[in-house]
Amino acid sequence: MNMSSMSNQPLPGEYPHYSQRYIELVPEEQIVGALVHNKHEIEELLLQIPDDKWDFRYAPEKWTLKEVVIHILDTERIMAYRALRMSRHDSTPLAGFEQDDYTPFVHAEKRSPMSLREEWNALRDSSIHVFMYLEPADLAFTGTAAGYPFSVRALGYFIAGHARYHARIIRERYLI
Fold first, then answer.
1. CB atoms within 10 A of CB 97
2. What is the mean pLDDT of the segment spanning 34-40?
3. What was the pLDDT predicted at 167?
4. pTM for the model
5. In the predicted structure, residue 144 carries a pLDDT above the cut 80
6. Which of 23, 97, 134, 156 lies most in the core, judged by the most C-beta atoms within 10 Å?
């Protein structure tokens, strides 16, 4: 039985304060449903991006649209890994990461829009499966990542909210 569908949204204290801006963007009550719905939202957005916009920067010091999408992918992969470890009740503190240090090594200029869309779909399907069969105790388990407490449930909401946050930036700053 899919127990994760019984989960409610995370409460303050299950995640660091900086995560609030992502978690509040996810109104869905079940994490798996939120991830599935969000998968389709982002997939539609990626399909709407004209070919000439993928290498666009809205300001000289900002990421290209390809780099933004790769950042979404990298962050999701890291958060899903954290959720997997914590859902197995692994209390080993997990390291943080510095997103800006990753960017020079993502090789965005070599990526096609189709490769990014394919990776999005594959990665999100994988993330959905991380959460799909978790029991309430697994979702409630709290570990430490980057020196902050996170429940497994909060990590799932972070994943969906982070993608929505950047989707809004893409619409407002890249697709103008």
1. 13
2. 97
3. 98
4. 0.94
5. yes
6. 156
Residue at 111: amino acid letter: R
Per-residue HEC secondary structure of the chain comes to: CCHHHHCCCCCCCCCCHHHHHHHCCCCCCCHHHHHHHHHHHHHHHHHHCCHHHCCCCCCCCCCCHHHHHHHHHHHHHHHHHHHHHHHCCCCCCECCCCHHHHHHHCCHHHCCHHHHHHHHHHHHHHHHHHHHCCCHHHHHCEEEECCEEEEHHHHHHHHHHHHHHHHHHHHHHHCC
Residue with tokens 């407002």: 172
The average confidence (pLDDT) of the chain is 95
* Angle at 41 (CA atoms; ends 172, 151), nearest 5 degrees: 100
What is the reported pLDDT for 4? 46
